[in-house]
UniProtKB/TrEMBL annotation:
GO terms for biological process: DNA replication, removal of RNA primer; mismatch repair. This is Ribonuclease HII. It comes from Ulvibacterium marinum. Its cofactor is Mn(2+); Mg(2+). One of its GO terms (cellular component) is cytoplasm. GO terms for molecular function: manganese ion binding; RNA binding; RNA-DNA hybrid ribonuclease activity. The gene is rnhB. Keywords: Cytoplasm, Endonuclease, Hydrolase, Manganese, Metal-binding, Nuclease. Manganese or magnesium. Binds 1 divalent metal ion per monomer in the absence of substrate. May bind a second metal ion after substrate binding. InterPro entries: RNase_HII, RNase_HII/HIII, RNase_HII/HIII_dom, RNaseH-like_sf, RNaseH_sf. Endonuclease that specifically degrades the RNA of RNA-DNA hybrids.
């Protein structure tokens, strides 16, 4: 059963999606849930089906006190690296909140202080704490929707299905068609024995 980290202060959870992808943004969400929030379906987004994530998204948006979702795009990822881009996306998502949090809980083990607000990084936090799980669902659903839109421009990569992750099909399409402006040039897009010219 997911729980709150604190019960008595405004606690924001934040998480990102798309960190391991070859294409598309890294997307983060931050969310402040009401203290009495309960949902039996909510879990780490990776443990939920596509249908359940999309079912939860409007519930979370409607029932939360506030939320923010932010993308950091491939050009910036290539400039500052994926870890820094993930943290930047989380900071940008927190920037969008209408309530200033008193405490921030973050999925994972790396974070940079945000405006001197106390924070706690929690490994597998998205499977332990409600607000991080909720943030993971929002980040994943928003990023998936973005990649499905990009698919209409570049159907040959099948981003509607693979969402930019390094599947065999995606890599074969990169080899055949080359890269787009949505690919992360600093990532190993193909195995070592195959090379691309940018």
């Amino acid at each position: 059963m997911l729980k709150s980290y604190y019960h008595n202060i405004d606690e924001v959870g934040t998480d990102e999606a798309g960190r391991g992808c070859l294409a598309g943004p890294v997307t983060a969400a931050a969310i402040l849930l009401p203290k009495d929030f309960k949902n039996d379906i909510l879990n780490d987004s990776k443990q939920l089906s596509h249908g359940k994530r999309n079912f939860l998204r409007p519930i979370l948006e409607n029932d939360c006190r506030c939320y923010g979702v932010a993308h950091v795009y491939p050009e910036k990822i290539d400039e500052i690296n994926i870890l820094n881009a993930s943290i930047l996306a989380m900071h940008k998502a927190i920037d969008l909140l209408s309530v200033t949090p008193k405490f921030i809980i973050v999925d994972g083990n790396r974070f940079k202080s945000y405006k001197n607000i106390p924070h706690k990084s929690i490994v597998k936090g998205d499977s332990k704490f409600m607000s991080i799980a909720a943030a993971s669902v929002l980040a994943k659903t928003y990023r998936d929707a973005y990649m499905e839109e990009l698919h209409e421009q570049f159907p040959m990569y099948n981003w509607k299905k693979n969402k930019g992750y390094p599947t065999k099909e995606h890599r074969e399409a990169i080899l055949k068609y080359g890269t787009t402006k949505y690919h992360r040039k600093s990532f190993r897009l193909l195995p070592d024995q195959l090379t691309l010219e940018f």
